[in-house]
Amino acid sequence: MRIDPPEKISVDSMTFDVREIEPLLQAPAMDIKPWPGAMCKLKDGRILYIREAKLEEAPMMMSYMKRVMEAEHDFYDVVGARVLAEIVGWYRKRLKDPYFLVGLIDGLWAGFANGRLLNEDINISLHTMALIRGGRIGAVMYYAKAYYGFEILGNKEWWATYESYNGWMRWGLGMAQPSYPWPEYQHELGGARVYYVTKEYWDSTVKEYVRQMTGTDLEFNVPDEIRKKNEVMRLPEEVLV
Question: Among 35, 199, 231, 235, whose CB has the most other CB atoms within 10 angstroms?
Fold first, then answer.
């Protein structure tokens, strides 16, 4: 858009260095405590190790999500597209205060969970996925990121929404999550309803519910052997969502 200046000016053209523009486009990062890494024994006996995703793993993760987008059932086309955009946003520094957790079994990418911080109090849950079958991996990943928000980051509220019927039934209905009035409150995933959990509700009810859903618990005293086995991530050969 161009508008003539209301005053005589000496210079009518200016050049910007993109390094001067970038601070305006990239949100200043909060000081967020890192996820320390945790493991758990799945119901089928396998060990799932949950760590932070590495930025250099983003292109690999994006390539897999492009394949997930092709699944035309249970809204995985929507989920795949949105997760792809979230990973790209993280990779290109266009997502405010995100966190990305990957669940690995001997290096194989088995689970995914991500979100971002609106502020110090509110944690916005984005997506949770199981990439291989069995072991209730999806439930474990959801538990891990909720634990991260409430127990490690000290968040006071957890905001979620649901794209699929299965997700709503297991977490929205299963946790008896209340919702904020719509449309005054809208989740950033498509403007859907905001379902929320408070820290008090997490402590009194939800934490135990999710723990029961997983059938296991997180162990933060992870042997070096497990960490080493999962240092390098590899993709599943098939898309099994």
Answer: 35
For residues 183 and 165, what is the distance between their CA atoms, to the nearest angstrom? 21
Q: What single letter denotes the amino acid at residue 237?
A: E
- CA dist 78 and 76 (Å) reads 5
- HSE-up of 193 (CA within 13 Å, CB side)? 11
> Pseudo-torsion of CA 137, 163, 176, 209, nearest 10°?
0
- Across residues 33-49, what is the average pLDDT? 95
Q: Is the pTM of this model over 0.85?
A: yes
For 156-163, what is the mean pLDDT? Answer: 97
End-to-end, the C-alpha distance of the chain in Å comes to: 46
Query: Helix 207-214 to helix 137-147 angle, to the nearest 10 degrees?
Result: 150
pLDDT on residue 213: 86
Task: Give dist(CA 64, CA 98) in Å, integer.
Answer: 20
Tokens of 55: 């930025």
Paired tokens of 149: 């928000």
Q: Are 216 and 137 in contact (CB under 8 A)?
A: no
Please state the φ and ψ torsions of residue 45, each to the nearest 5 degrees: 95, -15
Q: Per this entry, what is the length of the chain?
A: 241
* Token pair listed for 150: 């409430």
Q: What is the DSSP string of 146-169?
A: HHIIIIIS--SEEEE--SSHHHII
Average per-residue pLDDT for the chain:
95
Half-sphere exposure of 129 (CA within 13 A, CB side): 28
